[in-house]
From TrEMBL:
GO terms for molecular function: hydrolase activity, hydrolyzing O-glycosyl compounds. This is T9SS type A sorting domain-containing protein. The keyword Signal applies. InterPro entries: ConA-like_dom_sf (IPR013320), Ig-like_fold (IPR013783), Ig_E-set (IPR014756), Secre_tail (IPR026444). It comes from Adhaeribacter soli. SUPFAM superfamilies: Concanavalin A-like lectins/glucanases, E set domains. Residues 1-30 form the signal peptide. The keyword Transport does not apply. Keywords: Signal.
Length: 1024
């Protein structure tokens, strides 16, 4: 065919391997071959023809470059596989054994599919672009991979493996000693396949089976599904040794719908049977148990429940030896009772399994290592003629065909098996395996359930059970503290340590009486006091969680040691406990009342810096210490009550209550008293600290006392009590006690409009130094009591008899004002009661003294007055019994006087009796009057003693001894010091000694008055 024009042509043969599909035109690089023409190297070749050879194709190409040039190129084509790829998978998540469709390209020759590195249980290549894979046991979330000869494709996204094992716990918080059910549940059905026997000759032969237990205990378990149409006797299994048949079971049996079980004796007399009628046409678990010839009993369990038992059947003598086991046929060559139905999960144990063990494992795949498991066939091969044992040795079985029916048929099992569940730790569990166990831990424990799958892999899940000791609130029944069902170990007592856990079902509320020792509120927990609650804490209170106190009382009652009071907001708070120290851990607020009580009680502010903000009433008892403050703050009047007025209270008070504070008991205060707002009034205060902050609208109204040691020169300040003591004479006065009376003016009884200011001072030195002192008295303008100090002067008054009489000191003195404060200064050498008035408010007549004595002329009475106003005269009155006074004389008075006046009067008519009583009646010109004190004067003569009294002091009896027996009656009277007759006797002393019974009289001093004829004798008697 070629012309001469082709003489320049040469045939070139190239062996070229292509790994792409051959295109219509092909660029060929001929470099590397001998002398390739330039146009061959660079030009395009067009396909002209092909010639097929054995392993290649010969292509004829026309190379165009102005003229034809023919080249024969031998191209050997290798088979080509493209690199696989994964584009998507669906679903994106599934449990193990779930089906997943994988889409992509070039899957045709796939050799493996894996889920995060775990090979799929199985997979099917549907096409070059699709594979269906089964999620393997114990797969984990991650990428899916597909392997082909050309490479491996890995998904860009992760496949999520859904959990198939879950754990449920009856409750995660239990009391010590309680039990709780824990259940591990798998949603995975691992039943696999089963064998179906047609009853016409199909069975499984296990020729090397060897029981080798000499007739001891045995348990055989299997799952079975038998159609109700089956008739006759059908052998489920049978085994024999060299001597005889050793165990055997039939369903049906006895030519009726029975299950029959034999072990060691196949005779009817040794057979245990039960009706199987209810269990046909459904998958049923059967367990056949025998204690062997040593135990002599048989039992049948269906679905874990015992349905038949006989304790009197003889098992006979069984010898060991190689046996043969047939499943689905009798071992006898003459008796062929082929089984009809389905079987799965065939197990043999060399022990009597308990009902609990049977129920626990009937739905589980039992591990091959389980103790006492002789052999176990799962029937999960799914194809072929061999069944493999997963325990024991040499126990593989062979599927055997009947005369015309073939071998048993593989089918899906309906046994409903799940992975085997094992538990750890085994301690405190009712069982170490099984889906459900009972846990009874004594301490908080984490239990782990491990599921074992058919391929041996495992998956675990854990749950922690918190164990609470006595005193833990569970809240199982309600939030009521007093409901015993809510507590571990019963209702708490004063000796119980209480914990309120964060995981309690309900959070506790206290609405009645509650007690505990230590109290802990865990972080996340809440304790509420409501509706009149009364909670007593006898130990440590640790409120890591929330403490809500809207009503009722919490009391800290520890009797010894230090009890800490947390920094919280309380409603009513009681702090008590003999011999204990109570220490604040921070500032606290009490919205209700605060009671500090104990005998004694040391109440300490921690680090001397914490305060109590009190919005209710305060009750003080015991003693306190510290430099923190109790701040009384509210918009309503609050009160302070004291348990024991004689106890000192080392505490600081701040009064910040515009409505005022009422002091209902006398208070000895060693701390400071600070006023911010409001008036404190009521009983008296002995203040050993400082008084500050008083002003018109905020001060103490009542008696307040303070003591300073004063010796040597210097000015001593009694703070806001309004006294400056300038010891100009340098005298040693010892301890000087000043009592200030606010709101208590001195009143002129004859003119109610004439009073002093509403402030008095009582100054009492320990030592009468009688040296010069300058006193500066200061008072609030609100204490002026209507006095007119517009002239800038005032009068200082002094009383030496506790306010009965008042003496003006010096003349009118200048008053200094500083804001709301007024001051006045005087000099003195002695001390008593003091007050201030203006010039228009003189005080009433003041009695400086009144006394009497016997003289030869009669009873001389003397008296003095410090001041008199509008005084007319003095009437002298006398009484012989201290009650009935009669006038005995009159003395004219000075009228008006601001100087000391002296008076005297002699009672010449005084009766000759042992005691006389006198008083003065002072008349004014306006007809008003007042009395002096009453004085007594002994008789001016002595009567002859005619009786003696002994013993003196006396107790129950007083003896009277007369000088001589007297005729007639003697009147004997016992009077108290107020001249009141307490006992009276009328005796006839016919002998010298007389006895008076005195058990009814209390202890004290009495006057014995004896009257006989005109003689009266008075003597002092002491009754013990």
């Amino acid at each position: 065919m070629y012309t001469t024009k082709t003489l320049l042509a040469r045939r070139l043969r190239f062996l070229i391997c292509f790994f792409i599909l051959l295109p219509a035109t092909l660029s060929i690089n001929a470099s590397g071959y001998a002398d390739p023409p330039e146009f061959i190297r660079t030009n395009t070749i067009d396909l002209k023809r092909t010639q097929t050879k054995s392993n290649s194709k010969e292509y004829l190409f026309e190379i165009n470059k102005g003229e034809q040039f023919y080249v024969d190129i031998n191209i050997r084509l290798k088979s080509f596989q493209m690199q696989p790829s994964i584009s998507l998978f669906a679903p994106a998540s599934a449990q193990v054994t779930g089906s997943v469709v994988i889409s992509g390209s070039d899957f045709t020759s796939a050799t493996a599919v894996s889920f995060n590195g775990t090979p799929a249980l199985s997979f099917t290549v549907n096409s070059s672009t699709q594979i269906t894979a089964i999620v393997p046991y114990c797969a984990t979330t991650g990428a899916i991979s597909v392997v082909t000869p050309s490479g491996t494709a890995i998904s860009s996204g992760s496949f999520t493996v859904l959990p198939d094992v879950t754990m449920s716990v009856g409750k995660t918080q239990i009391c010590n000693g309680d039990g709780v059910l824990i259940t591990a549940t798998s949603s995975l059905n691992t039943s696999g396949t089963a064998l179906n026997f047609d009853g016409a000759g199909q069975y499984v032969n296990v020729p090397s089976f060897n029981l080798n237990n000499d007739g001891r205990a045995i348990t055989v378990e299997f799952w079975v599904n038998i159609p109700s149409t089956v008739t006759g006797n059908r052998t489920v299994f049978a085994a024999t040794n060299t001597n005889s048949k050793i165990f055997h079971a039939m369903i049906p049996a006895n030519n009726r719908k029975d299950l029959a079980w034999n072990y060691g004796n196949v005779l009817a007399a040794g057979r245990l049977s039960t009706d199987f009628t209810p269990y046909f046409n459904k998958w049923t678990h059967v367990a056949l148990v025998s204690a062997g010839r040593l135990g002599s009993f048989k039992a049948i369990y269906i679905n874990g429940v015992e349905v038949a038992r006989d304790n009197g059947l003889s098992e006979g003598a069984i010898t060991n030896g190689t046996t043969m086991l047939k499943i689905g046929d009798d071992v006898s060559s003459t008796i062929r009772t082929y089984f009809r139905g389905s079987l799965d999960e065939f197990r043999i144990w060399d022990k009597v399994r308990s009902p609990q063990e049977i129920q626990r494992d009937m739905h589980a795949i039992v591990p091959a290592s389980t103790p006492n498991l002789i052999t176990y066939w799962r029937f999960d091969e799914g194809s072929g003629t061999k069944i493999s044992h997963i325990s024991g040795t040499n126990l593989d079985g062979t599927l055997t065909a009947g005369s015309a029916t073939g071998v048993p048929v593989w089918q899906a099992s309906g046994a409903g098996l799940q992975p085997h569940i094992s538990w750890s730790p085994a301690a405190s569990l009712s069982s170490a395996s099984g889906a459900t166990v009972t846990a009874s831990p004594s301490a908080t424990t984490t239990y782990t359930a491990t599921a074992t799958y058919p391929n041996g892999c495992t998956r675990s899940i854990a749950q922690t059970i918190s164990v609470s000791q006595t005193g833990t609130f569970t809240g199982t029944a309600s939030s009521d503290w007093n409901d015993v069902a809510n507590w571990c170990g019963g209702l708490p007592t004063a000796a119980t340590d209480v914990i309120i856990p964060a995981n309690a079902v309900n959070m506790p509320q206290v609405s009645t009486i509650a007690n505990c020792r230590n109290l802990t509120i865990e972080n996340g927990a809440t304790l509420s006091l409501i509706n009149g609650a009364d909670l007593k804490v006898n130990g440590t209170f640790t409120p890591s969680g929330t403490f809500t106190h809207t009503d009722g009382t919490i009391a800290f009652t520890a009797a010894f040691g230090t009890q800490y009071i947390p920094s919280l907001i309380y409603h009513n708070l009681v702090i008590s406990g003999k011999n204990a120290i109570k220490e604040l851990q921070g500032d606290i607020e009490v919205t209700g009342n605060l009671v500090l009580t104990g005998s004694p009680l040391a109440f300490t502010f921690n680090l001397s810096r914490y305060n109590v903000l009190l919005r209710g009433d305060l009750t003080l008892g015991g003693s306190q210490s510290g430099t923190g403050f109790i701040i009384l703050q509210n918009s309503a009047i609050r009160s302070i009550n004291i348990f024991n007025n004689n106890l000192e209270h080392s505490i600081n008070f701040e009064i910040d209550n515009p409505a005022g504070v009422q002091l209902n008991s006398d208070l000895i205060l060693n701390g400071n008293l600070v006023f911010k707002s409001g008036i404190m009034s009521g009983n008296s205060i002995i203040l050993n600290g400082n008084l500050t902050g008083e002003d018109i609208t905020t001060h103490f109204k009542g008696k307040i006392t303070k003591t300073l040691a004063i010796s040597g020169p210097g000015t001593y300040s009694f703070d806001d009590m309004g006294l400056l003591f300038d010891n100009v004479g340098s005298g040693n006065w010892g301890k000087v006690t000043v009592s200030r009376y606010n709101g208590v003016p001195v009143q002129n009884p004859r003119d109610k409009n004439k009073e002093s200011i509403s402030r008095q001072w009582l100054i009492s030195p320990e030592i009468p130094a009688n040296t010069a002192v300058d006193l500066t008295f200061t008072w609030l303008s609100s204490d002026d009591n209507g006095k007119d100090f517009s002239t800038g002067e005032g009068q200082v008054w002094k009383s030496n008899d506790a306010g009965a009489n008042w003496i003006p000191i010096e003349e009118l003195k200048a008053i200094t004002s500083n804001g709301n404060m007024r001051s006045i200064k005087v000099s003195t050498k002695s001390f008593s009661s003091w007050t201030i008035s203006d010039i228009n408010s003189p005080l009433p007549v003041t009695w400086l003294s009144f006394s009497g004595k016997n003289t030869h002329a009669g009873v001389l009475l003397e008296w003095q007055t410090a001041t008199e106003e509008n005084s007319s005269n003095f009437i002298v009155e006398r009484a012989t019994d201290g009650k009935e006074f009669k006038p005995v004389g009159e003395v004219a008075s000075a009228g008006n006087s601001h100087h000391i006046r002296s008076y005297q009067f002699t009672d010449e008519t005084a009766a000759k009796i042992p005691i006389l009583y006198y008083r003065l009646k002072q008349h004014d010109y306006d007809g008003t009057y007042n009395y002096s004190k009453i004085i007594t004067v002994p008789a001016p003569f002595r009567v002859v003693d005619f009786v003696q009294a002994y013993p003196n002091p006396c107790s129950r009896e007083l003896h009277l001894r007369f000088q001589n027996p007297v005729a007639g009656a003697v009147k004997v009277e016992l009077l108290d010091l107020n001249n009141q007759v307490r006992s009276s006797f009328l005796i006839k002393p016919d002998k010298k000694d007389q006895v008076l019974e005195l058990p009814h009289l209390p202890q004290g001093i009495y006057l014995l008055r004896t009257t006989y004829s005109d003689q009266i004798l008075v003597m002092k008697i002491i009754k013990q």
